[in-house]
Amino acid sequence: MTDSSPTESVRTLLAEIIDYAGLFPPSQISMPEAVINYATYRNSNYNWMLGRFVVPVARLEEFMESARDFVSRDGNSAWRLSVLAGEDIYATIRQIEDFNAKNAPHVICDTLEVRANTESKIENTVNVLPPFLTAYFEIPMDERLADMVTALAIHKQRAKIRTGGTSADEFPPTRTIIRFIRCCLAANVPFKATAGLHHPLRCFKPLTYEANAPKGTMNGFLNLFLATGFARAGYRPIILEEILEDEFEESFEFTDNGVAWHGDYFLTTWQLGFVRQKSIVSFGSCSFTEPIADLQEIGLL
Q1: In this predicted structure, what is the pLDDT of residue 120?
Q2: Where are the domains of the chain?
Q3: What is the three-class DSSP state of 107?
């Protein structure tokens, strides 16, 4: 990884954007490999783009066995973990509290990711959520979406959208993504994304790393984050749809002052920072190097 001098707008948009999920498909590497990778990324020239290490609650002790030497020698800031909750939310919280008591300040679980198909699951989780944990709730994209986002807003919680997977049917339609974005913005609910966002721009590529893997149309993380920015600026759904489906790097021009799409549509660097802070926070990816390589290829890094 060579040194880079991205524009101010690129640096603002990409700061701490990738939560590293190497344990999950399609990469699905071993815990020791994932820990070594994360330690390497923390000391790379692109560590400013790196967010949390994503780990299931059931593997916290396994994580610590692999990471103990790394975190104890790491003189930088604490390793921050985003923990995927188990079925029993009470047991999950207890495990996290025990883990933090043993391992802080070198490593700390400060984010929780929860699947919630009902409003009662949100309420039950909120009732036991300690103040130090920020929770993201993965909610259904069907007719329940508006009610679920409303429940998150009432309880001052955050949402999570799954934007892909290892098969074509796991990628939601563009209009479903737009509906999710607009619901969250209307309710002032920040969110994160996960799955299928290895590449900056929308593209047709293999869905896994297997030989002869099936190909499909994958969402781009630049498309998603910029569409959220333009949605927050009040642009109509038809424009957002075009932004999410744009596959051409030349459509986007980044300068220190902001980013232009097709020349006529502009978000300032301040707007990019605001949307990252208040709306779309990060995305989970099983690869950290692939997004960087693609960003280098299109000249943004």
Answers
A1: 96
A2: 8-297
A3: strand
Spatial CB neighbours of 144, under 8 Å, sequence gap ≥ 6 = 117
Amino acid, single-letter form, for residue 206: P
Question: What CATH architecture is 8-297?
Answer: Alpha-Beta Barrel (3.20)
- Model's pTM, two decimal places? 0.96
The residue among 215, 111, 91, 101 whose CA lies nearest residue 158 is 111
Q: Looking at the predicted structure, is the pLDDT value of residue 1 above 60?
A: no
Judged on CB neighbours under 10 Å (0-12, 13-18, 19+), 69 is exposed
Which residues make Cβ contacts (< 8 Å) with residue 140, sequence separation at least 6? 117, 148
Q: Are strands 215-218 and 252-255 parallel, antiparallel or unpaired?
A: unpaired
**What's the rounded Cα separation, in Å, for the pair 57 and 77?**
22
CB 30 within 8 A of CB 46: no
β-pair partners for 113: 84, 136
Helical pair 221-232 and 237-244, crossing angle rounded to 10 deg: 160
Alpha carbons 60 and 42: distance in angstroms, whole number: 19
How many whole angstroms separate alpha carbon 133 and alpha carbon 54? 14
Query: What tens digit of pLDDT does each residue of 109-157 get?
Result: 999 999 999 999 999 999 999 999 999 999 999 999 999 999 999 999 9
Contacts of 86 (CB under 8 A, 6+ apart): 56, 57, 58, 92
- Give exposure, 18-57, as e/b (b: 16+ Cβ within 10 Å): bbbbbbbebbeeebeebbbbbbebbeeebeebbbbbbbbb
Per residue in 27-42, pLDDT (tens digit) is 999 999 999 999 999 9
Q: Is the pLDDT of residue 4 over 60?
A: no
